Amino acid sequence: MTKFQYSVASSLDGFIADEHHGLGWLRSRSGDVLPIADAARAEAGERNVWIVGGGPIAAEFLEVERLDELLVTYMPVALGRGRPLLPVATATPRFTLVRTTPFPNGAVEHVYRTG
């Protein structure tokens, strides 16, 4: 079954970009999310669809129940200020941790299932 996945790198303090939207610390389509998601699912067949574009787009997919998993890689840095990981308008149901993978560089990936 096709899954919609939000894969993102985050600083340890929960930011995905610095206050100037910069991604220097890390070495599409546009329009209404629902028809884009449904078209992507049809095109994907049994393959997964990765949602790339930052927290706001992932939050839109979550709001229309088209986000199945969050793949968050926490990097061993703290930014202090910046953009939130998943800027939702209202509280979400609790996510379920599926797996955790540590990497030699200190990064840790957590995979969460939604709903």
TrEMBL record:
<dbReference type="GO" id="GO:0009231">
    <property type="term" value="P:riboflavin biosynthetic process"/>
</dbReference>
<dbReference type="Pfam" id="PF01872">
    <property type="entry name" value="RibD_C"/>
</dbReference>
<dbReference type="InterPro" id="IPR050765">
    <property type="entry name" value="Riboflavin_Biosynth_HTPR"/>
</dbReference>
<dbReference type="InterPro" id="IPR024072">
    <property type="entry name" value="DHFR-like_dom_sf"/>
</dbReference>
<dbReference type="GO" id="GO:0008703">
    <property type="term" value="F:5-amino-6-(5-phosphoribosylamino)uracil reductase activity"/>
</dbReference>
<feature type="domain" description="Bacterial bifunctional deaminase-reductase C-terminal">
    <location>
        <begin position="43"/>
        <end position="107"/>
    </location>
</feature>
<dbReference type="InterPro" id="IPR002734">
    <property type="entry name" value="RibDG_C"/>
</dbReference>
<protein>
    <submittedName>
        <fullName>Dihydrofolate reductase</fullName>
    </submittedName>
</protein>
